[in-house]
Each structure stands twice: as structure tokens, then as C-alpha cells.
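Re: the pair you flagged

First of the two:
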Amino acid sequence: MQSKKNKTVIYTRWYRKWHRIIGITGLAVFFIMSVTGLLLIWKKNSGGYLLGETRHGKATIASEWVKIDSLQHAAINFLVLKKPEADREIDRIDIRPEKGVAKISFKNHYTAIQVDLTTGQALTIETRRADFIEQLHDGSLFDKIADTNFLKLLYGTIAGLFLLFLSFSGFFLWFNPKKLKKIKFNKQGTGTQ
């Protein structure tokens, strides 16, 4: 019975030590991930500050839409008009069929332009702050800065492993004192008989 108690005490001390070390080491990463995660949850409810409100186009019928290259030209022309110094390389085009709109995002800055799928007219320009927050949250911002494809994987893997260990060790830091109390109670109970 004594060796079981000693092992539990030794393991609990080990878990406490490493729980503290990993918790302190990962504090900045956990803080960034939790704050950015909260912001991302609220991005569509930020009144257009983090992510612009999606506009509505004239029609949602795909046969009435203009070609993709027309959407690209409209977006680039609108970008040149509003932000002449901005890079014009398009990163992606998100089609919102239910709203008749395409959101065109640019590769080297956080600007997006919404274009009516039917008329090909630019409807609005926005700064997509949520994209920056998402890149900070998942670590891809570090890849973008360092021009690699490795830092995001490293950042996410370390953060995930740290969180798994903290969950696991946290459970034993809660469970082992209960276990020790039970061992002590059983020892006292058998000693009094």
C-alpha cells in the first residue's frame, strides 16, 4: 500500500512540475490563440469591423452571371481607383451564390472587393481584419513573414501537444489527490479494526 502511495506522490509531483513548465512556456501562444479565437468567433457580429457585411447582387441565378475574368477586371479596376498603390495580385474569389456576390481577396494585403455577379459592378471595398486575425491564430502569418511553409506546422503542433499534455496532467493533478485521500482513508480504516 505504501509503494502505491509513493508512486502516486512521485507522479503527481512530476505532473505538477511539467504542467507548470509547459504552462509558462506556452503562455504567449495560448494567450494569442485564445484571444484570436474569440475574435474569430465574433467576426460576423462585429458590425463590419473585422469582416465586412456581405452585400447582395441583382440575381442569384447562375445563368445570368458574368464571367470570372470580368469579375477580376472589375475588382482590379476598383482597387486601382480606391487604393492605387496596392498590389493587384488576386489570392482568391469566393462566390456567394445565395447572395449573387463574389468576394475577391488580394494576396499581399487584407483588402477585399465585393462584386455583383450579374452586373460585374464593384459593390464595396473592405479591409478584412479577420484574415489577419486568422493568420495569427493558425500561425500562417509566421510563414508569410518568413516565406516558409514550416512555421505554421511547428506552431500548431507544439501548441496542440502542449494543450494535450496540460489537459492530461491537469486531470491527474485533480485525480491523484483524491486517490491519495482514498488510500489514506483505507489505511486508517484497516488500522482501526
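Second of the two:
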Amino acid sequence: MESYSLFEVNEYIKRVIALNFEDAFWIECEINQINGNRGNYYLELIEKSEKSGDIIAKASAAIWYKSALFIKKKLGKLFDSILQSGVEVRLKVNVNFNERYGLSFVIEDVDVNYTMGQMELQRQKVIERLKAENLITLNHSKVLPSVLQRIAVISSETAAGYADFIEQLQSNAYGYDFQIGLYDSAVQGQKMESQITESIREINDEAHLYDCLVIIRGGGSKLDLSGFDNYNIAAHIAKCKLPVITGIGHKIDTTVSDLTSYLSLKTPTAVASYLIDSNAQFEAQIIEMGRGINAEILHRFDSDNQWLNSFREQLNYLIRDRFSSEMINLSSAQKILRNSTDRVIERQSDKLEGFETLLKVVDPKNILKRGFNYTTTLNGDFVLNSKKAKKEKELLIHYHDGQTNVKINNG
């Protein structure tokens, strides 16, 4: 049985590939890993099944120094955004087969439009799914408190956008005190989805501690911010127990996460300004309400004071009128009383004169003058019968002009 060495087989494969892939061509794939070293870049490329999401193809690739310079000049700031894990790309490659190291691709160019198109296509699919599940406006139904002071924040602690956000809050002109709960999360790259969704779940468990959730990220390219077009992140934002305010650092485009949030603002500092202005507006409303209450109190006081003065004048008039009326009544009653008293005194005087005449008639002195007398003991006791007289030895007989002693013979 004829056999071949491994080297011979690989050498044959090399010649076949060289004959069939003489020129560079374009391939569509996803970057699974990328590492740089001395200006060269080494990538692992994959393709996933649209149905299951399983990896169905894998290959190694490299961007050599000179090609990297060309691609960087072409892409500018988009270079780092496109050439990162998880990004779908269209690459112009040459096939390279080495008897020792096997098959690999040498990348010469990158089609940025393909990546952007794939991202937009994926973005639209996510939006349609969220609409179908009624999640686009779910967080809009949350009630944002009038005072926003206890703020849960999802951001990278070392990000410049987070530093700007904190600086803006701390230096607010009104002296408002904000209580910040930071949930440190990646806002770009492969860990972004898992860390942000986990942070939202933690915040839901502690929702009673906060007034709202703020998700912020500093400026970047559209590709840098594409992570916020992720379905799981947008769905978690929609279902969050708190109103979610996003400031994802872009001025033109809107991410899917912005669509599902309660309020979308352009930058982290714009979010800070909104929190400050919202509190200032509420304070202004309270001050204005206080002024209105004070004005109403003064108006009521003035109105009641006028009524009280009017009532006092009416009361004084009524008192004077009543006093005058009562004085007239009193004067009339006094006259009636005086007349009645005079008549009573006159009647009683007549009675007294009658009694006086009667007394004169019954006066013992006058009776004695008419020939009557009375008898007493020497002690002055009246002797009213013979029995009493017989007990005494001596009696006094009284006349109107004197008295006579009479000795009693009881023998």
C-alpha cells in the first residue's frame, strides 16, 4: 500500500493552494480573537451558524506591519473599533499554507462598509424583536421622582465620561448633594453584555435604594458604541424597575439601548446637567409655590383684617345703638319704678298712719286715762287673776298718774 509523508502531503496542498488562489480575495467572517505584537496583528477568525450560533469554521490570520500601517491610515479611528473581538468583517486576504504551521490568511485590506452594514442590519433585527415583545416603550411608563438624589450608575470607573459626570454633579451651583452607587462595568468589548446585564439585575434587587438608573459612556465612534445595540442589554434596560437615563456619548446616532430607556441624552455631562436642572426646577416650583402661599396668606390676612375692622365698626355701632336704646329703656323703667315706689310708699305711709292711730288707741297710758288700771307684784309681774293676787303680800296698782301699794290680807 502506497503512503505519503506528512510533509509531502502538506507540500502538495501548498502547491494546490498556490495554483488555485494566486490573487487576493474577500472573505466574510467574525473576529474571535486579536492580539498585537511589534506592529503585527494575529487574529482568529470564525463563522457561526445563523440558526444555532455554533462555530462552523475557524482559521488563523495575520496583518503584517506594512499592511497594518495601510489599514490604519485608511480606517483612522475606526481601526481599533473594527478590529476587535465579536465584530463581523469583510477582509481581503491571501491564502498562505506552510508545511509546518498549516493554513492561514494574510490580511491586506478591510471593508469598513460591510462591517457598518452588518451592524445596522443586526441593529434593525434587534429593534424589530424588541417591538414584537413590547419592550421599546416599557421603561417609558416608569415614574421619575420629582427629586433625583439617589443615583445608581453603570459605567467604567476609570472612564473619562464617568469622571466628567461626577465632577459636574459635585460642582453644581446649587450645592445639591447626590448619593451615587457605582456599578463598575465594561462599556465596550466582549465582557460588556454580561457585566451590564448583571449590574442591572443587582440594581433591580436594590431598587428601593435609588431614584433612577444612569448608564453612561464617554465619546467614541459608532462602532465603539455598537455594544449598546445588543438585545440583552436593551431588554434589561426596558425591564428595569427604575427609570433609566442613558448618556452614551454620541451626538447623532441613537443606540437601541437609548430607544428602550426612559430618557436618552447625548453625553454623561448632559445627564449630570439634567439631574441638576431637574432638581433646580423642582426647587423653583417649591419656592414659587411658597411665594404663592405667602401671597395668599397676606391676601387672606388683609381681607380678614378689613372684614374684622368692618365688623368692629358695626359692632361698635350696634353697641352704641343698643346702649342708647337700653339707656332710654332704663330711664323709662326708672320713671316707672319711681312712680311705682312713690305709690307704694304712699300706700304704706297711709297704713303706718292707721297703725299709729291704732297704737295710740291701744296704748296702755291712754287706756289708763280712761279710768282703767292694772296690778303688778312688787317685782313687776302682772297680776291677771285673784289666785295670783292671793299669793302676794303686797301689790301695786297702777293709774295713769301714779301707783298705790296695797297690802293683801290672806287670813
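The mean pLDDT is 86.

-B.
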